Amino acid sequence: MTVQPEPPRNLGILAGGGHLPLQVAKAAKASGRTVFVVGLEGFVDKSWLSEWPHEIVRMGAAGRIKAALLEHGCQDLVLIGPVRRPSFFDMRPDFECTRILARIGKSAFMGDDGLLAAVVKVIGEYGFRVLGAHEILKEALAPEGLLTLAAPDAAAMADIARGVAVARALGAVDVGQGCVVQQGVVLAVEAAEGTDAMLRRCQALALPAHGGVLVKVVKPGQDRRIDLPTIGPATIAAAAEAGLRGIAFEAAGAILVNRLASIAAADSAGLFLLGLGRDQINQGSRTP
Q: Which CATH number is 11-136's, of 3.20.20.70, 3.40.50.720, 3.40.50.20, 3.30.70.260?
């Protein structure tokens, strides 16, 4: 007897900012999935939504978000795109959101990873299966090795090792996923402001010598379905403007947006892109 494959499951996308939500939607549709987008008000880029079934909902309206996903038959859910965590007052939580906050308790006041992990658990209890964006975008995860014409020298590799150690330490306390290091000096660490804002700060902090490096790695113990480190053309442009030499990231742990465009942008700017393997991450984690 021939076993028929299961039909593609309907996908809901809880969309924050940036271009990744659209890429996920396109990839899901190409694979035969029906797609419905919940755009988070104040964060989602509305310019692409008109071509997709969607609803724009404020972050605190969890009841409406849940209802919209169920009304459109969503079975799987991807949370993708940057958002800023609002204050409780700004969120204006509805009854369902208040109930969720009460259930996740102290996790609501932890770092982003702790909060997101608690939210994913609640979403799972609603019956949705939460997927990582990389499970839809099959080629999204950054590969290992050098991707560009420019390559890091010994000094840059030392800065990368230092950056891995610092970023892993930050991640262990659920603060951020990246930092900028120049000649062994940590110029900036990523916190709530995000990568681009961190890079803008670096412009005034750079030392008068070879540029620094941006390092981005996954937090220790992070749920890899949500909030993976992301690098794309905008990140590369910001790194070049900050006078950096290159970007190193955890291979198979970071999302490289528009890979060919990102590599081309880095080559044009003379920056290196380096995917760090597991051994390099572990070795860097031991660097003082």
A: 3.40.50.20
